Amino acid sequence: MSRPAPRAVGELLSSALPQMGDRLTEFRIRRAWASVVGRDLARRTRPDGLVNGTLRVVVDNSPWLHELTLREADLASMIRARFPEVQTLKLGLAALGTERAADAAPAPRPVPLTAADRADIDGAVAAIADPEVADTARRLMTTARRFPRSRQPSTPPRAGSRGAV
User: Fold this and answer.
1) Which of 26, 46, 95, 120 is least buried, going by the fewest C-beta atoms within 10 A?
2) Residue of 124, 110, 125, 134 whose CA lies nearest to 157
């Protein structure tokens, strides 16, 4: 029996949670923005949101907004060539500022796993029959414990919680 080809986590999430599709596409557009529209245009614009196939693009000043309004069809075709999910553009004026705090935040440092963390993970994974799914769940839970949002060492789950990480 042949195994199916590996699939990206983003693809799996999109099929499992359809509402995540626009968010994942928006993230990919933000990361590739300069390579899609060019450095000069990327300095004056940024993608601001994707909702139901409409990409909102903010521009930092009125002359550039006017220029892009005239070139909207060309800009849309450049974006659609790389991201076919984008059907239309909506241009708007806004201050671009610097990177958002979330984008500029330093990468979190890993926290060593304790014996209690390992026991919690083993207990949660034991209920999963499929070995591949169990292995994936183990990796995800280990990563979640090693990189907690609070950046403090993880603590055992409270009584009544279901061992969520």
Assistant:
1) 95
2) 124
| Same domain as 165, residue 110 | yes
Cα–chain center distance at 118: 27
Does pLDDT of 104 surpass 60? no
Task: Please determine, for residue 142, whether its predicted confidence score (pLDDT) is greater than 80.
Answer: yes
Residue that the structure tokens 């403090």 belong to:
152
The answer to whether residue 4 sits within a structural domain is: no
Does the pLDDT of residue 76 top 90, yes or no? yes
User: How far, in Å, CA of 27 to CA of 45, rounded?
Assistant: 15
The single-letter DSSP state of residue 71 is T
In a domain, 126, yes or no: yes
The answer to whether residues 82 and 17 belong to one domain is: yes
CA-CA distance, 71 to 59, in Å (whole number)?
13
What is the extent of the structural domain holding 56? 10-104
- How far is it, in rounded angstroms, from Cα 67 to Cα 61? 10
